[in-house]
Amino acid sequence: MRSIPAVFLLSSALALAADTDYARLPDVAKLLVDIIRIDTSNPPGNERKLADFLKARFAPLGFEIDIIDTPQAGKSHFIARLKGNGKKRPILIAAHADVVGVEREKWSVDPFAGVVKDGYVLGRGAIDFKGGLAVFAQAVLDIAKKKIPLDRDIIFLSEADEEGGQYNTRWLAERAWDKIDCEYSLNEGGWIIKDKTGKVLYVSISTADKSGISLKLTARGTSTHSSMPRPDNAIYTLARALVELGGYDTKPKLTPETRQFFGALAEVSPEPHATQYRNLLSDDPAKVAAADKFLSEDTLIHAIMRDTIAPVLMNAGFRGNVIPGSAEATINFRTIPGTTPEELIAELRKVIQDPRVEIEVAPMSLGRGPVTPEQQKQMDAMMRSMRNSKPSPQDNELYRSLVKSAGAVYPTAKVTPYLFQAGTDSSAWRSRGIPVYGIYPYPIDHEDLKRMHGNDERVPVSSLESGLQLITKTLLDVAAAK
Ligand SMILES: [Zn+2]
């Protein structure tokens, strides 16, 4: 008999240990491990693979399944409907299937192996948003398994192209609206934040997302031979405009929801932060300005209270001996609900104060040359969503139920509405007047939060379990037959 190499013995022992760990996990964590192992890094996404996996889980439990293929091979949306008696309109619970890519060499574990270590599931998407997909899916699967009678359909949606790409929920809503139409919806968004001791400090439920829009600055000058420079060089003109912009910041604009959020932070934060949050909410402009300065060291807090400005692209010149006739910079803005594109352009003109710099709305995606019809569609949709962006109400059944369930599962926490600092794919519903509430359904601390879209992304197993309680309670509250 040939001897078995030691390395083989070792690796099979490791595999055995890993499998034993897996067997001991609660169902929701097992599900997360399984779906992390399906690599849906976008591009290309490969969401169809995850759709097929989910179909095998959902179909045997009596769900109506629709897989909506997009024009891109391997990219699909997955819809599973659990039928109720139709007394009420459906609730939709949505999670994106795709994840951002990884810098593999910076991870301490294989990001697509679904490693379980020290009470955490590690892997790309653990927080954003395969953890949420696992919690949402497990809640719906459990309700189906228990055959609980329902007053409304529960629609579970696993979405493609949230992290980028054109076949996102906006695309889906235009083609299969009847499959995803609902009274209200749950999606990603707010946070359940705990401190180092594990105490849950607050649960924030997003009722609105910031909008995103890009503006292009074009400086004009004389195009000529570089041997005879002129004072109207377009690159200098653009550079001066950018220097003005760099020294400028927008004023805080607090919405009713962000006021509630900062009020909650004032109650749960240690000093001196608590006082600064209170000052931010005061009527005293000097106190507000000082609080803004202090609190804005946290870039998330800085972003939630204002329209943000970020230059992202520049384009000037085409050869070494020609002074170009124009120079361009693209500036990305993330705006508070209520800010219009016209207001933003007017504010920018005032800051730059140079008529030689033209300002116009530009595509979000990279592109030099004329705007394509697809980009124009995206820009129109962006501007529409900016104009129509209204927060989802706090006085309906789903929001009230989320608050009640969060209070029951996390009794130490303040529960507050939240303005999500970036965009999500909720706009497909909000733009049609359908309320959407967002939550990452698991308590995490700041160390966990930092790893989202970064390296060694992770979520505590125990947080997945309590998040499952929160979501199950909420779904039963609004959908179970009464
Ligand atoms: Zn996400």
Estimate the mean pLDDT confidence: 93
> Count of DSSP E strands?
17
Most strands sheet = 8 strands, mixed
Low-confidence stretches: 1-9
Quick structural summary:
The protein has 482 residues and is α+β, with helices and mostly antiparallel strands.
Fold and architecture overview:
By secondary structure, the chain is α+β, with helices and mostly antiparallel strands. The protein has helices at residues 6-24, 27-36, 47-58, 130-145, 169-180, 234-246, 256-268, 273-280, 285-295, 299-304, 341-352, 373-388, 397-409, 427-430, 446-450, 461-479, and strands spanning 64-69, 76-82, 91-96, 115-117, 120-122, 154-159, 184-194, 200-209, 211-220, 224-225, 308-316, 322-323, 326-335, 357-362, 414-420, 436-444, 458-460. Strand 7 and strand 8 (200-209) form a beta hairpin. The longest helix has 19 residues, at 6-24. It is globular. It starts with 5 loop residues before the first helix and ends with a helix. Mean pLDDT is 93; it is low at 1-9. Residues 96, 128-129, 162, 188 line the site of zinc ion (ZN). Residues 96, 128-129, 162, 188 line the site of zinc ion.
